């Protein structure tokens, strides 16, 4: 009503002709704090399985999100060679507590995901020699399309997939069959998906997505 009244003023230069205000495909609200409190046991279990995939001496990339900080905590005293992240939550966990060197990727701060995003992620990651990348996602649909909530996340996720020797999604089971506004890869582009149920490699993942389609 306030907007309608202001627009009706002669000096405003606008005319209100009715209609609706709607969210666009990429304006989904993402409540980081709320997500941090959901499915905690499942996220921790998924990260335990992910931890088993990390070989000694590996350079590890940790994406942003509310699952991978649990993996950051597990890797802080591992035999990894270096941990790379752009997530403030993971960085806070590792700061002063990690026996493993930590590389924090700077860039524009995005408060909604508590992360930083540079304009040239390929250049930033190219010389770090990432062995294994762990990625977050908001959903994996029945076709194998992997999605997230924000367009700005895509460039860094894509760079991590293309520049790492291996890449895995880490999420909880409730996100299988779900979909978010922004697609960033397909499951055939990654080496597997890790949940509280363990590792889904290609054949097992295809079967799991088929089950999700039938549910």
From TrEMBL:
Xref: SUPFAM superfamilies: NagB/RpiA/CoA transferase-like (SSF100950)
Top-rank taxon of the source lineage equals: Bacteria
Pfam families linked: DeoRC
Instruction: Spell out the InterPro entries in the cross-references.
Output: Carb_Metab_HTH_regulators (IPR050313), DeoR-like_C (IPR014036), NagB/RpiA_transferase-like (IPR037171)
Question: The DeoR-like transcriptional repressor C-terminal sensor domain covers which part of the protein?
Answer: 40-196
**Matches recorded under PANTHER family:** AGA OPERON TRANSCRIPTIONAL REPRESSOR-RELATED, HTH-TYPE TRANSCRIPTIONAL REGULATOR SRLR-RELATED
Protein name from the UniProt record: DeoR-like transcriptional repressor C-terminal sensor domain-containing protein
Record organism:
Thioclava indica
């Amino acid at each position: 009503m306030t907007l309608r009244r202001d627009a009706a003023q002669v000096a405003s230069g606008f005319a209100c002709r009715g209609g609706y205000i709607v969210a666009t495909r990429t304006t989904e609200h993402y409540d980081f704090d709320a997500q941090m409190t959901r499915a905690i046991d499942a996220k921790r279990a998924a990260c335990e399985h992910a931890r088993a995939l990390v070989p000694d001496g590996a350079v590890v990339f940790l994406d942003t999100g509310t699952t991978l900080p649990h993996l950051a905590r597990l890797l802080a005293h591992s035999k990894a060679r270096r941990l790379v992240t752009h997530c403030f939550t993971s960085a806070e966990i590792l700061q002063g507590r990690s026996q493993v060197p930590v590389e924090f990727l700077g860039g524009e701060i995005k408060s909604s995901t508590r992360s930083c995003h540079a304009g040239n992620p390929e250049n930033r990651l190219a010389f770090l020699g990432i062995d294994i990348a762990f990625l977050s996602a908001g959903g994996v649909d029945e076709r194998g399309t992997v999605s997230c909530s924000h367009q700005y996340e895509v460039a860094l996720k894509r760079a991590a997939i293309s520049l790492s020797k291996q890449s895995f999604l880490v999420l909880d089971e409730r996100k299988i069959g779900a979909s978010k506004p922004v697609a960033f890869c397909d499951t055939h582009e990654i080496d597997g998906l890790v949940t509280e149920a363990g590792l889904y490699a290609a054949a097992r993942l295809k079967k799991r997505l088929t089950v999700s389609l039938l549910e």
